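Saturday, quiet lab. Running sequence design on the structure tokens for the scaffold JK sent over.
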């Protein structure tokens, strides 16, 4: 499309000015000469620095395994970030302060690591002590004896509800 716009024939002065501005805008952010060379060298240095750091972080992170031993066998789980132990063995690290072992109960001892929370003795979901019941069921209101002993003669019996000859059928149900 640019070859059509560059032809000298048929362009008025205003169109030539607009074309000139368009060409300037097209290469506005392009670097030339020394500036382009320095920019390319800076990009290469940055790529080497970030690739090296990323590769180093990847190799150190992938080789970090838990340092705990179970029955003279090293744990094969990945360690937690910024630690040397996995979630199962994090309580063996004496310097950490984020996890505590669950105290369990008298019947069932438990040493599962639990994140320290606002409570003084954190527990795993199995040993969590529920708060006291806040819901109090409503008391059943006692019905006065006067209402219970209502006269039964106010109600009609089934025999009295049967249609009779004096009532037409359309009024009986």
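Result came back. Writing it out in full:
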């Amino acid at each position: 499309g640019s070859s059509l716009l560059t032809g000298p024939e048929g362009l008025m002065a205003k169109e030539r000015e607009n074309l000139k501005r368009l060409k300037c805008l097209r290469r506005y952010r392009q670097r030339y000469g020394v500036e382009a060379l320095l920019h390319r060298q800076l990009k290469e240095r940055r790529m080497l620095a970030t690739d090296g750091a990323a590769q180093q972080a990847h190799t150190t992170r992938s080789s970090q395994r838990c340092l705990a031993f179970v029955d003279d066998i090293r744990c094969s789980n990945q360690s937690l970030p910024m630690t040397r132990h996995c979630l199962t063995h994090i309580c063996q690290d004496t310097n950490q302060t984020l996890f505590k072992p669950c105290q369990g109960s008298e019947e069932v001892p438990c040493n599962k690591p639990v994140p320290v929370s606002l409570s003084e003795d954190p527990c795993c979901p199995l040993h969590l002590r529920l708060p006291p019941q806040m819901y109090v069921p409503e008391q059943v209101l006692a019905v006065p004896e006067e209402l219970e002993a209502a006269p039964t003669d106010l109600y009609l019996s089934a025999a009295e509800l049967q249609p009779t000859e004096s009532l037409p059928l359309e009024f009986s149900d």
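Notes for JK: The radius of gyration is 44 Å. The chain has a mean pLDDT of 77. Ask whether to fix the surface positions before the next round.
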